[in-house]
């Protein structure tokens, strides 16, 4: 979880591969209307995210042996919604600052639907999950291999506890 550009898709893919788990790419499940809004630089509302979160919850339930989901999960209510669908769900929070997120999103502007004009609204919407149970905060500026190792070590530690 985290704002646009924090590295959800990159870490999600690496973690799914390392853990031998299926990957659910949250961005693939936004409605066409939501994708168009984001392309135009219009931030999604709670209402826009409602059906999307319901779909993601159903996808988690369809993978009872586990899965890696990439999902911005910006507000506590969104995370609680997913926890409701999938008890035991844990979150890896990729924390990044505005400048670096803005740079990353701008750098891929030609190939990705997300408008860089929206980065500020992502930070305005973000409610930090730090302090909630089952959350690992990672520094999104670390290299991908290190992030994957830290996330895998956390998962292993929780499973042996
Ligand atoms: N750990 C990292 N170090 C350096 N660059 C990274 C790292 N993780 C991702 N990136 C780069 O940052 C950009 C955004 O990454 P990615 O698409 O994984 O983020 P995201 O959070 O899934 O973004 P979005 O949700 O907006 O698609 C990509 O160009 C990616 O290559
Ligand atoms: O809740 C949201 O506003 C969205 O999920 C965004 O975070 C983007 O889809 C994503 O980060 C861009 O790829």
TrEMBL record:
<dbReference type="InterPro" id="IPR006001">
    <property type="entry name" value="Therm_gnt_kin"/>
</dbReference>
<dbReference type="Pfam" id="PF13671">
    <property type="entry name" value="AAA_33"/>
</dbReference>
<keyword id="KW-0808">Transferase</keyword>
<dbReference type="InterPro" id="IPR027417">
    <property type="entry name" value="P-loop_NTPase"/>
</dbReference>
<keyword id="KW-0547">Nucleotide-binding</keyword>
<keyword id="KW-0067">ATP-binding</keyword>
<keyword id="KW-0418">Kinase</keyword>
<comment type="similarity">
    <text>Belongs to the gluconokinase GntK/GntV family.</text>
</comment>
<protein>
    <recommendedName>
        <fullName>Gluconokinase</fullName>
        <ecNumber>2.7.1.12</ecNumber>
    </recommendedName>
</protein>
<comment type="pathway">
    <text>Carbohydrate acid metabolism.</text>
</comment>
């Amino acid at each position: 979880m985290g704002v646009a550009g924090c590295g959800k898709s990159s870490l999600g893919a690496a973690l799914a591969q390392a853990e031998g788990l299926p990957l659910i790419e949250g961005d693939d499940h936004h409605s066409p209307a939501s994708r168009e809004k984001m392309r135009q630089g219009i931030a999604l509302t709670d209402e826009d995210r409602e059906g999307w979160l319901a779909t993601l919850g159903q996808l988690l339930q369809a993978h009872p042996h586990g899965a890696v989901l990439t999902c911005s999960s910006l507000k506590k209510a969104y995370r609680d919604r997913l926890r409701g669908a999938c008890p035991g769900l844990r979150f890896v929070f990729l924390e990044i600052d505005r400048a670096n997120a803005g740079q990353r999103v701008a750098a891929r502007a030609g190939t990705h639907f997300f408008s860089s004009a929206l980065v500020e609204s992502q930070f305005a919407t973000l409610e930090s999950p730090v302090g909630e149970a089952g959350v690992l905060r990672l520094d999104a500026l670390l290299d991908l291999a290190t992030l994957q190792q830290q996330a895998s070590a956390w998962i292993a530690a929780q499973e042996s506890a």
